[in-house]
Design goal:
Low-confidence stretches: none
Structural class: mainly alpha
Strand content: 5-15%
Number of domains: 1
Order of helices and strands: HHHHEHEH
CATH topology: Arc Repressor Mutant, subunit A
Strand order of the largest sheet: 1-2
Largest sheet: 2 strands, antiparallel
CATH architecture: Orthogonal Bundle
Number of strands: 2
Radius of gyration: 21 Å
Mean pLDDT: 86
Shape: elongated
Number of helices: 6
């Protein structure tokens, strides 16, 4: 049946053949973001930060702000600090404990910035977001 056949005009939608669409997981992105907001009280900026940091063993606020192109102060106050308070980001290395050898390794003069990383619950949340996007876990839009 052709694309312009009169009987097709009455449908609400018509899907393309699968050979024309290879991946379409991000179709559910807005639903998944609403799910995460309702059930975990995590906003869009916080989800972006979690997804960005997922492949880091640890990071500093300076590095994160440069890599994401955001203001260091605002990123910390609005995103990182709430994630730390909710337990999704934790301090891996305290800045005061880093010795001169580590400072030389990281080419830093002050060396007193904390190294942060995703906690176990942060990693599990990112994995849950990916499963929801890929259809492996249901999207729940009612509060739990």
């Amino acid at each position: 049946m052709s694309r312009h056949h009169p009987s097709r005009r009455r449908r609400d939608f018509s899907k393309l053949n699968k050979r024309y669409v290879k991946r379409n997981d991000l179709k559910k992105l807005s639903l998944v973001l609403r799910d995460v907001k309702l059930n975990f009280d995590i906003g869009l900026a916080e989800v972006e930060a979690l997804l960005f940091c997922y492949d880091y063993e640890f990071f500093t606020i300076n590095h994160l702000s440069k890599a994401m192109g955001k203001s260091r102060k605002k990123l910390y106050e609005r995103t990182v600090l709430p994630l730390k308070q909710k337990g999704y980001i934790e301090v891996i290395h305290h800045g005061k404990e880093i010795d001169s050898y580590i400072n030389a390794l990281f080419h830093e003069k002050s060396g007193n910035e904390h190294r942060l990383g995703l906690s176990q619950s942060g990693r599990m949340l990112v994995q849950r977001i990916y499963r929801k996007l890929e259809g492996g876990e249901p999207i729940n839009l009612q509060t739990s």
